[in-house]
């Protein structure tokens, strides 16, 4: 499939992830391929019974993933399509979580071409992987906080970014509730992502995502980014 026109179906857990990837993915795959980012209303959890039905009204990513992947496998058999599942690690164990996801894929017959890309600890890690982009979007961002961030560390990632760029920091934002947090995360994605340099992002989990896309798309990301 390398180098052939492909379609990428990208499943993400929230709107901020969708906004970020709608800007980033074209920089990676170029114009020869198509993609669609589908946002869910939270990550949820992998069901104990993998054959349990989809609760479409809830639109929770992991709850619905077994049926989604089986459906993709049947619908897209023999088509140049790949599914990317992009979600946060949060406080889970990376090795065991990835294995659980692979176990879901292994129940599919036929299996869709699938890649699991896990942001460590959260999606904001991919933004923090490009400090220059943050500074371009938020010139008053606090260097003292940004410079202490260790890429893909388990440190309260969105809180770290909030402390650097949001008035009153994460404490002030948290007091406004989860809806306000989600709206602010979406705004960060919209403002920071256009400045991101996909070739010079320091987040290992972002690099993994980029390389998996490039592997299937067969693109030269440096040339794509210059012309995109």
Mind explaining what this structure looks like?
- This protein is α/β, with parallel strands linked by helices.
- The chain has two domains: 7-125 and 201-227, Dna Topoisomerase Vi A Subunit, Chain: A, domain 2 (3-Layer(aba) Sandwich), CATH 3.40.1360; 129-193, no CATH class.
- Helices cover 48% and strands 12% of the residues.
- It has helices spanning 15-29, 61-75, 94-106, 124-128, 131-137, 143-146, 157-165, 169-174, 178-192, 204-217, 221-227; strands spanning 7-12, 34-39, 81-88, 113-119.
- A four-stranded parallel sheet has the order 2-1-3-4, sandwiched between helices.
- Helix 3 (94-106) links the parallel strand 3 (81-88) and strand 4 (113-119).
- The longest helix has 15 residues, at 15-29.
- It is globular, with a radius of gyration of 18 Å.
- The model has no long low-confidence stretch (mean pLDDT 93).
In short:
With 228 residues, the chain is an alpha/beta fold. The protein is built from eleven helices and four strands, in the order E-H-E-H-E-H-E-H-H-H-H-H-H-H-H.
